[in-house]
Amino acid sequence: MIGEGSHHAQWKHLGPLLGGPAIYLFGNALFKRVVRGFLPQSHLYGLALLAVLAVFASQLSILVVGTLTTLVMVGVAVLEAVVRRRAWAGQQSHP
Questions:
Q1: Whole-model pTM?
Q2: Looking at residue 9, what DSSP letter applies?
Q3: What residues have CB less than 8 Å from 9, skipping those under 6 apart?
Q4: What does each of the 95 residues of the chain score in pLDDT, given as a tens digit?
Q5: Do 57 and 14 contact (CB within 8 A), yes or no?
Q6: Exposed (0-12), middle (13-18) or buried (19+): which is 47, by Cβ within 10 Å?
Q7: Residue 1 CB neighbour total at 10 angstroms
Q8: What does the alpha-carbon distance between residue 61 and residue 73 come to, in Å, rounded to a whole number?
Q9: Could you state, in order of their start, the residue ranges of all structural domains in the chain?
Q10: In whole angstroms, what is the distance from residue 56 CA to residue 32 CA?
Q11: For a designed S-S bond to 29, which of 22, 43, 51, 93 qualifies (C-beta 3.0 to 4.6 A apart)?
Q12: Angle between helices 41-56 and 62-93 (to 10 degrees)
């Protein structure tokens, strides 16, 4: 894929680029639902963004799709970290 980064994304490229992160977010969300008892909103937002990206991905280059997918995953991680930190701070302030 690196050698073809400037070409328009085809379905053979979109499967790994979008499907891999989507499967990870879905599976991780289900795991957290079972273990912690809640469904993380950050993962749902990430899945929604990947779905929107999938609609337009065939019009974009492989490099752009890969970059946007990475940004979605980083955004999910940052959002989850912020939510967890706020929850932890809330527990610490209320003894």
A1: 0.82
A2: P
A3: 17, 57, 58, 60, 61, 62, 65
A4: 555 555 667 777 788 899 999 999 999 999 999 998 888 999 999 999 999 999 998 888 888 899 999 999 999 999 999 988 887 777 776 65
A5: yes
A6: middle
A7: 14
A8: 19
A9: 14-93
A10: 30
A11: 43
A12: 170
